[in-house]
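FORM 7B: Structural annotation worksheet

SECTION A. Query
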Amino acid sequence: MEATILDLRYKMRNVLSALNRREKVRIKYHGKIKGEIVPWHSGEKRKSSQHPLFGMLKHEKEDPAAIVASMRRARYHDL
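SECTION B. Predicted structure
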């Protein structure tokens, strides 16, 4: 669905209905697409290894779970 700024103001019910139907809503301003509203996916779960962040650096061969574990460890080590 495509909507203008005025549609967002005066016809929000139609926009919300489209989101309930799992449609993306493209926002137009002066005839040009400025953004997109996407429906919320509450039941979708992904593994951390499927996140786009992991694998961005080609030289890193470490397992994503090990990277997360190293980020979660304590900052200061008690001796």
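SECTION C. Observations
Residues 27 and 33 are 6 Å apart (CA to CA). The chain is about 30% helix and 20% strand.

SECTION D. Sign-off
Analyst initials: ____
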